[in-house]
Design brief:
Layout: H1 4-14, H2 22-31, H3 41-84, H4 87-103, H5 120-126, H6 132-137, H7 147-157, H8 177-186, E1 192-196, E2 207-214, E3 220-223, E4 226-228, E5 234-238, E6 244-253, E7 256-265, E8 277-278, H9 285-288, H10 293-297, E9 302-307, E10 314-318, E11 328-329, E12 334-335, E13 341-348, E14 358-365
Parallel strand pairs: 8-14
Antiparallel strand pairs: 1-2, 2-5, 3-6, 4-5, 6-7, 9-10, 9-13, 11-12, 13-14
């Protein structure tokens, strides 16, 4: 199939003609010198027509050759750009090409552009190089995208502003109630196992040790009594009164919290570990005199008095744990009557937290 462009050139040459006046031509031919050539004017006209046809064909071939060269150079440039140029350059080429097609009102109706009709200005504008020659000669040279492309890409990759996120006062992203409930339902805190020892009086005070077996972090303790030596895995409870104590342990594991409780009941009130009878004639020194036992092992300042229940008279007084009452009545220097209950009273000056300062009881001489 012949090229439309070639057909167009041929049709123009074949239909080419000039209008002329025969009378004017006859008058002009009479004035011309006689031709030495044997060719008639019709022959000359035919030769002129052939020359014009040859010139047209040569021009068309030259134009086609130039267009093919431009096409090859364009293809080389596109190939080099797609393989070596920055990804942004490739996007720029596609965006600009799309914009040039959109600017034409009848772009959707026109036939696809043929290789020989590619405009060199389009290729030059597609790249940021100063000329088509520099693009062809340097196909892999790094080229910067135009400012419009940079602005467009920056707008697409711009992060969301912080103000668009609903935040808590602590600048943490808040979640809805349903999400909180779901997280709480899926949250599994550490396992906590509590164990309590029997009450002991090793230092003269009633202490109960509670231990925790837990795979979580450091434990937080709380109780309705006094806790001492608050350590990560154990704690001691001061149980001065005969009552039920509730101890709570709380631990965390990966943000999940677990709580465990234990209840401890003490049946007797702490009364300085005092006995209620003694025998001055006993060979055991511990039973031969009276002073509350806790005062002998506790580092505490105190005052103890012994009173006659009949009249409230003072029978004995001491502020030293080594000075115990041996049953002698300071009023007459004699032993008090046996089987008679006397009243004792101790006032502490350095009581422990939640400990009362005054203790009382009765003592009988056997």
């Amino acid at each position: 199939m012949k090229d439309p462009f070639e057909s167009k050139i041929k049709s123009l040459i074949e239909d080419f003609s000039y209008e002329y006046d025969p009378k004017a031509w006859d008058a002009l031919s009479k004035k011309l010198p006689a031709s030495k050539s044997s060719l008639s004017w019709l022959g000359k006209l035919g030769i002129a027509s052939m020359l014009m046809l040859v010139v047209g064909i040569v021009g068309w071939v030259s134009l086609s050759s130039e267009n093919q060269k431009v096409e090859r150079k364009t293809n080389n440039v596109k190939h080099s750009s797609s393989t070596n140029a920055h990804p942004v350059e490739k996007n720029k080429l596609e965006v600009i090409h799309a914009k040039k097609q959109d600017l034409s009102p009848s772009a959707s109706k026109q036939a696809p552009i043929k290789p020989q009709t590619i405009d060199a200005n389009f290729i030059q504008n597609t790249f940021s190089a100063p000329s088509i020659n520099s693009v062809v000669n340097n196909p892999i040279r790094e080229r910067q995208p135009t400012q419009a492309i940079v602005d467009e890409l920056s707008e697409l990759t711009k992060p969301l502003p912080l103000s668009s996120l609903r935040q808590t006062p602590n600048s943490q992203i808040s979640i809805g109630d349903e999400q909180k409930a779901e997280l709480a339902g899926n949250c599994q805190g550490p396992k906590i196992f509590l164990d309590a020892d029997a009450v002991n009086y090793e230092d003269g005070t009633p202490r109960i040790k509670i231990s925790a077996d837990c795979n979580g972090s450091e434990i937080s303790w709380s109780a309705n009594g006094t806790l001492v030596q608050n350590k990560s895995r154990s704690v001691e409870l001061l149980a001065f009164k005969g009552q039920t104590y509730t101890i709570t342990a709380q631990a965390q594991l990966e943000g999940c919290v677990s709580t465990e409780k234990i209840k401890i009941t003490t049946n007797e009130d702490y009364n300085l570990l005092a006995v209620n009878a003694f025998n001055p004639q006993s060979r055991d020194e511990r039973n031969a005199s009276f002073i509350p036992y806790a005062l002998t092992i506790r580092d505490v300042r105190f005052e103890m008095i012994i009173l006659d229940p009949d009249n409230g008279a003072l029978v004995f007084k001491s502020t030293d744990s080594q000075n115990a009452w041996d049953g002698t009545d300071l009023r007459n220097g004699q032993l008090v009557p046996s089987q008679k209950a006397f009243i004792w009273k101790v006032v502490l000056q350095d009581a422990l937290p939640n400990e009362k300062t005054t203790y009382t009881g009765t003592i009988v001489r056997i």
